[in-house]
Design a protein that fits this description.
By secondary structure, the protein is mostly helical. It has one domain: Growth Hormone, Chain: A (Up-down Bundle). It is built from 16 helices and no strands. The two termini are 26 Å apart. 57% of the residues are buried.
């Protein structure tokens, strides 16, 4: 049975702009999923060490943070559609630059200025602006359900991209193409999909833009685009940064590399593993709206996230590949329930004209946290005796986030829950 308010009460309420944003979400996450499977292999194949690769990924994510903060805090004032198109062009440019150079400095500059996702997760300005737009064009009662389907769409797209990249690189290598050449093909695809995104975003209607309140001329011209919600947004941002910092130790690129180092798994098999993992993650998100309706958004976020982090710690403790895959899949089967609830909660507790900025600031906090961790993870992966340690660090930090989030926000229910 589907969660109440998902299919009939949620998706049927979507406008043309809403469906278009679901399509851009799928396109973007497909490209992110494909890139995440091959990126570490590609960079090490270019001759970069594990430490240099970690540095590139860290600077790439930090650059994504600056891009996201710059665009999302101005989106409600300058125009959401314009900012989304700019982000798509930066994504295409970064993919093309990575495909065309092996120079460490140029790779770092391209990754810092452009939009590259080493984790398979959202980076750049897209998610915050899309969340704000979706929240604007749907009723409050279906917000969490729509975000659950939105999360499912992204999870299936990431899964499909991971499977596609593993399959295509294997096929190309059988035709005598080098591994590096097959991985470069994925980067050209990534750049092409960035251009497609720019085209799709250009089709958004004026209804996607913020509805300004005539009684509040200051509107979104406050500091960073937020006013009365600033204290709550900053507290959430600090906690989200902690969660993402923990997760940054096991971003999908490094997790795939861990399976290769520990069990010798080839890219095609890795694509299949992460296809299954992301499918389980997406399906789990659908249950979030039912749980949130019964227990509340904050409780759903915490009590589904905690056990998934325990399972994360258990992955490297498994003695063989089948058990490691099983625990990973179990972890992913509950790991994404906090995503639509987290997004819905953030949108619910801020004013409508602050939503793009609030989602952008909390998203930047997550990206910043995630950006720092790969630098340390790269150093750990460079030492064979320490390749399991990132999982232990990640799980412990994320459990700490769950406990702190519950303590700080369980008493702050969004208005629709109060009603």
């Amino acid at each position: 049975m589907l969660p109440s308010g998902t299919k009939r009460g949620a998706l049927q309420d979507l406008t043309r702009d809403g469906w278009l944003l679901f399509l851009t979400r799928f396109t973007r996450l497909f490209s992110y999923g494909a890139l995440s499977v091959i990126l570490v292999f590609y960079l090490t194949g270019l001759g970069l060490s594990e430490s240099q690769t970690g540095m590139v990924l860290t600077l790439t994510l930090l650059g994504d943070t600056v891009v996201s903060l710059s665009l999302t805090t101005q989106a409600d004032r300058i125009g959401r559609r314009r900012m989304l198109i700019v982000g798509a062009i930066l994504m295409a440019g970064a993919g093309l630059a990575f495909a065309c150079t092996g120079n460490l400095l140029l790779l770092t500059v391209a990754g810092t200025i452009g939009v590259i996702s080493p984790s398979g997760n959202e980076v750049g300005p897209f998610l915050p602006i899309e969340q704000a737009t979706l929240s604007q064009v749907i009723p409050d009662r279906t917000r969490t359900a729509v975000f659950a389907w939105y999360t499912l769409t992204g999870a299936f797209a990431t899964a499909a991209g991971s499977l596609f990249a593993g399959f295509v690189t294997q096929v190309l290598q059988r035709t005598a193409m080098t591994p590096l050449g097959s991985q470069r093909t994925i980067l050209f695809l990534y750049a092409s999909l960035g251009l497609l995104l720019a085209l799709l975003f250009s089709r958004l209607s004026p209804a996607a833009e913020v509805r300004r309140d005539p009684a509040d001329p200051a509107g979104v011209r406050t500091l960073l685009g937020i006013g009365s919600s600033r204290a709550v947004v900053l507290r959430l941002s600090g906690l989200f940064a902690l969660d993402a910092f923990g997760g940054g130790f096991v971003v999908q690129s490094f997790a795939a590399y861990w399976f290769y180092l520990r069990f010798g798994v080839n890219p095609a098999t890795l694509g299949g593993i992460f296809f299954g993992a992301n499918v389980f993650a997406g399906i789990s998100a659908l249950l979030a709206s039912r749980l949130a309706a019964r227990f509340g958004l904050v409780r759903t976020m915490v009590f589904t996230h905690l056990p998934s982090n325990v399972l994360l710690i258990l992955v490297p403790m498994m003695p063989n590949l089948p058990l490691a895959i099983l625990v990973l899949l179990l972890r992913f089967s509950i790991s994404q329930m906090d995503v639509p609830t987290r997004q819905s909660y953030t949108m619910a507790i801020v004013r409508p004209e602050e939503r793009s900025a609030a989602a952008g600031i909390t998203g930047v906090a997550r990206t910043t946290g995630a950006a720092i961790a790969p630098l340390f993870a790269g150093l750990l992966f460079a030492r064979p005796a320490m390749i399991n340690l990132p999982f232990f660090i990640a799980g412990t930090l994320k459990i700490g986030y769950d406990l702190l989030l519950y303590r700080a926000f369980v008493g702050l229910a969004p208005p629709d829950e109060t009603r």
